[in-house]
Amino acid sequence: MKSEFRIQKIEVLNIIRSSKFVILNSIFFSLLLFIISCSNPYKNLAKSEYSINEIQKIPYALPYSEQTIIYKTDISFYKNDISGLLIIKKTEESIYRIALTTQFGLKIFDFELNQGNLKVKYCIEYLNKKIILNTFETDFNLLLMQMNFESLTSYNNQLENQKVWQLKSGKLNYNYIQNINSDKIENIRFMKRNSEKISVGLHNYKGDIPENISLQHHNIKLKMNLKLIQ
Predict the structure, then answer these.
(1) Per-residue pLDDT reduced to its tens digit, 53-90
(2) Is 219 helix (H, G, I), strand (E, B) or coil?
(3) Which terminal residue of the chain has fewer beta carbons within 10 Å of its beta carbon, N or C?
């Protein structure tokens, strides 16, 4: 009996040790993956640093266009689908008027973006919520490159035929990805602690303005598709 009890006890201890090893192994690999995900994906690329006043070196014309730009726009926000015409007009340096109307001219929202700060002129009731307005502020700052930032760095990714322009503010990274062949910005990525929060695709340029823009959030259910009309 005693012999059998000792054998059972040894087996139980071996199971416990084995379980501890598996748990520790799992924790170790989870930490390793977390550390890898938090590292700068461009750190091994050749880089150049610029003054924040040299932002116009980024070949992205949308923020500087003097013409009124109109996009046919579809917005999907959780269970809400909104369609209309998005009108973007630069009124002064770093000041933009951004309005969304229905096809029949009824106003959905009318914003002023002034040096990165969103001022509401009008907003339909169900969108006039702080969390939604803050989201729109982030989106339009990203599209019009109006966010506040502390440093500007470019990374040359020859393997992908890309040049990455990174605007950095604390733990926030705004990456404007240029196709070296076309010399156009084709992707924008907003990262927080190197976790992607928003991605933007810019396609089929007409001159310096992208004809198609697709914006998607990765932490909330929000998509925005824009097709250039004017």
Answers:
(1) 999 999 999 999 999 999 999 999 888 899 999 999 99
(2) coil
(3) N
